[in-house]
Amino acid sequence: MANVLINGYGSIGKRVADAVAKQDDMKVIGVTKTKPDFEARMAVEKGYKLFAAIPERKHLFEEAGIPVEGTLDDIIEDADIVVDGAPKKIGKANLENVYKKHGVKAIIQGGEKAGDAQDSFNSLWSYERCYGKDYIRLVSCNTTGLCRSMYAINSVADILKARIVLIRRAADPNDIKTGPVNAIVPNPVSVPSHHGPDVVSVIPELDGKIMTSAVIVPTTLMHMHSIMVETSGTTRDEIIDALAKTPRILTVKASEGFDSTAKIIEYARDLGRSRYDLNEIAVWEESVNVVDNEVYMMQAIHQESDVIPENVDCIRAMLEMESDNLKSIEKTNKAMGLIK
Ligand code: NAP
User: Is 276 left (phi over 0), alpha (psi -120 to 50) or beta?
Assistant: First the structure.
């Protein structure tokens, strides 16, 4: 049974904690927060042991009447691995100043840069490369989604060129600090965006072949990608079949009512998914087309949750608990109740 510590119980950290708690080969030994807010209280109510991420703030939890077991320093050496869920840039600082100091394996998230860890993880592409490694970066929600669809296409044809436009959600639903409220913002305004190079950090074979541009729009529900991939040769039927066979991809039909990201999220709600998470990415079947060997499709990414099962697989790879990536994927999916 692997001991997993979640350092940073926020949007990603709390979801990883719940996903780890559902597995039969790993357990959550603690979660950390810096602020004694309702999320800290709820972590304790759920049965997680709570620790102060910053030792000097431990008294704030005590003063707020939230039971805290100690500080990060008190628990870190009991961990076989730490999943860092701290905000962008703090993950890297934690890796350098805390995890390496204590000699504990760690996963940092997609807000950090590719060079900050030993490698970049995706369950389909780089499980073997990350096997037994000490410090790994779990790539962002967008990169994770793109890696899944590139895997599907690559399973039936060589990818010669990939061109992707990312339409990004402005903020997570709980975020009141970012926008826009009423605009479309090229972000970055320069092309390519960082997403292409990030995909290459997982799939080096795509170096020089993938270009991405990105805009931000006023929505909190999901990201969307418009994908154009020149291939060595394939058909629409082959791509539909490949999408159906690729783990953690759902194909949805507008003709069945999935006419927007809003309806996809409604589906996740109707499934009774915790926090309306859709860990699978959704590809619109009607959008899949092949013209002159060029594949076109549109997909939607639930930014807060597609990386969660990948974190579970990454733990198994880094702790050498399962050498076969497909077996880990299947085990994780089953425990989390993912659908195909
Ligand atoms: P978040 O919701 O802001 O949560 C961050 C958590 O880290 C909070 O629980 C915070 O605790 C805690 N924290 C703050 N300072 C810390 C420190 N020094 N040490 C340990 N924990 C600390 O952030 P998030 O959205 O989950 O993002 C976390 C990482 O995942 C980032 O790299 C992000 O780019 C990446 N990511 C995010 C998404 C997404 O859509 N949200 C998707 C994929 C990847 P307090 O609240 O108590 O201060």
Answer: left
Burial of 330 (0-12, 13-18, 19+ CB in 10 A): middle
Q: What's the pTM?
A: 0.98
> Residue 46's pLDDT is what?
98
Residue extents of the structural domains in the chain? 2-139+307-336, 142-301
* 142-301 CATH choice from 3.30.360.10, 3.40.50.170, 1.10.10.10, 1.10.510.10: 3.30.360.10
141 marked ligand binding residue: yes
Q: How far is the CA of 161 from the centre of ligand 1 (A)?
A: 34
Instruction: Collect all residues with Cβ–Cβ distance below 8 Å to 332 and sequence separation of at least 6.
Output: 19, 23, 309, 312, 313, 316, 338
Residue 142 among known ligand-binding residues: yes
The rounded distance, in Å, linking the Cα atoms of 143 and 138 is: 10
Which residues of the chain fall short of a pLDDT of 50? none
Average pLDDT, the chain: 98
Bridge-based pairing of strands 105-108 and 185-186 is unpaired
Pocket test for ligand 1, best of 15, 34, 50, 121 (most atoms within 8 A of CB): 34
Verify whether residue 314 is a known catalytic residue.
no
